[in-house]
Amino acid sequence: MPVLSPDLVPVLAAVLAAICVGGVVISLLYARVGGRSEADKRLAAIAIWDGPVGRAVGSEEGSRKRSIETTLRNLEEQQKAKRGVKPSLGIRMRQAGLGWTKKTYFIACVIAAVMSFGVALALFGVSSLPAIGFGAAGGLLLPHLYVNRKRNARFKAFTAEFANAVDVIVRGVKAGLPLVDCLKMIASEAKEPVRSEFKIILDDQTLGVPIDQAVQRLAERIPVAEANFFAIVISLQSRSGGNLSEALGNLSKVLRERKKMAGKIKAMSSEATASAGIIGSLPVVVTCLLYLSAPDYISLLFTTFIGKTVLAAAAVWMGFGILMMRKMINFDF
């Protein structure tokens, strides 16, 4: 049996490693490296086929389908272009329903920084330099977290009420009312924040903005899936025609099914949420109990440099663990 030279072993190992890495890269990026898949080629062949059935579809119904496909493609491209853009501070405050200006936000940042600095000095007894760090962190994080919380709460309130607003539009359209009159009913009788958002749609329409563009602005102000679906339905109906009441009725069913799914997910993940809360609170509870039962034993963590370092490292790793558990029990659908 031939024996490999010791000089060839590293070369062969490098070649095998390169082949393995190349195989993994090609398997992950096959759709881009190998061009279109067989399914895409078959769909393209069917799309350009000009047989008897293909010519039959080229009637009025076929042109309407092509118009719908074009509209959907344009809307998808617009959404992709806007999806990667993060909202500015002013947009986030408007989405949160806060009447703040940027000056007000910066004043809140200064107040939060001063309060964090005072709390660090008074309660934790740290020196001036760490207290300045606490103050800077509080000034940057606390107003940001407050705006995010108000923003998410407003989105949830809009989602909970939006299905009822769509039902009002469906009943009004079936009764023969124009779409604008249905929007006026929602703008005067619905709950907040749906009422104020539809009032903005009517104001834009009064100023001459087409109704489909005014509804698309709703999806920009409230970037949730429900508002996006509504904007797509109105845009398709205004550009391609069709039965608006049927389309909105289907949308209402979809919104209510999404609401049911959200309730099921919340119920199924409640046990994991409770477990995460218990696990996250255990270190704090155990520390408090040890401080009450054996203060001399646990006080080393607060009085010595090594103890403070251990506390800081434990807090960082505990934060990572809490964020990981939160990521595991949050479902996006």
Please provide a written account of the structure.
The chain has 333 residues and is an all-alpha fold. Among the domains are: 154-267, Type II secretion system (T2SS), domain F (Receptor-associated Protein, Up-down Bundle); 269-333. It has helices spanning 8-28, 30-33, 38-48, 52-57, 60-83, 89-95, 102-122, 128-174, 179-189, 194-206, 211-221, 225-240, 244-268, 270-293, 295-298, 300-303, 305-329. α8 packs across α13. Mean pLDDT is 76; it is low at 29-36 and 47-58.
Number of strands: 0
What does the main sheet amount to? none
**What are the secondary-structure elements, in order, as H or E?**
HHHHHHHHHHHHHHHHH
Summing up helix and strand content along with how strands pair, one would put the structural category as: mainly alpha
Provide the helix percentage: over 70%
Q: Termini separation (Å)?
A: 60 Å
From the coordinates shown, what is the CATH architecture of one domain? Up-down Bundle
Q: Average pLDDT across residues?
A: 76
Tell me the overall shape.
elongated
- What is the CATH topology descriptor of one domain? Receptor-associated Protein
Beta strand % = under 5%
Any idea of the CATH class of one domain? Mainly Alpha
Number of helices: 17
How much is the radius of gyration in Å? 29 Å
Poorly predicted ranges: 29-36, 47-58
Q: Say which CATH homologous superfamily of one domain is assigned.
A: Type II secretion system (T2SS), domain F
